[in-house]
Amino acid sequence: MSVSTISAFETTIHKTNVWLKDLLMELGWENESHERAFHTLRTVLHALRDRLGVNESNDLASQLPMLIRGFYYETWIPEKTPVKERHREQFLEHIMDAFGNHDIVDAERIVRGVFRVLRKHISVGEINDVRHALPESIRQLFDD
Q1: In a domain, 46, yes or no
Q2: Contact residues for 24 (Cβ-Cβ < 8 A; gap 6+)
Q3: What is the pTM of this model?
Q4: For 19-45, what is the mean pLDDT?
Q5: 49 Cβ partners below 8 Å, 6+ apart?
Q6: Counted domains in the chain
């Protein structure tokens, strides 16, 4: 029996793996699993998505690879966005919570790493739109 593949699926898997590898490199986690990179990317994207308005969130999603776009939208409730708590500390606390508040997790470093990967793969115009949609304290996490 022959197994056929769908090129769009192969392409999105390849692109997603590139993003995950880039994130592992950004964070110095070269010896870590793609699973940890996936968890990290998903966590930060959800935190970012929930702080954007519906239109801006959709604009960002349109530039994500299909597979990443799928988990970006996972559990999203557009009517509840953007969330009202929009301070840097609360944003970083959300990241820490997703990692079980482990002391070894540097939430700011993780967020900055994901944002660098976004800057690498998303158009400059869209990154600027996302940055300007965020409160100043979170926007600063995009800066290196």
Answers
A1: yes
A2: 30, 32, 34, 36, 37
A3: 0.92
A4: 95
A5: 57, 60, 61, 72, 76, 81
A6: 1
> What distance in Å separates the CA atoms of residue 136 and residue 59, rounded to the nearest whole number?
20
What's the pLDDT score for residue 74? 96
The domain of 25 spans 7-142
Residue 2 lies in a domain: no
Look-up: residue for tokens 């070894």? Answer: 104
pLDDT tops 60 at residue 2: no
Rounded CA-CA distance 94/98 in Å is: 6
Closest by alpha carbon to 22, among 116, 125, 141, 144? 116
SS3 track for the chain:
CCCCCCHHHHHHHHHHHHHHHHHHHHCCCCCCCHHHHHHHHHHHHHHHHCCCCHHHHHHHHCCCCHHHHHHHHCCCCHHHCCCCCCCHHHHHHHHHHHCCCCCCCCHHHHHHHHHHHHHHHCCHHHHHHHHHHCCHHHHHHHCC
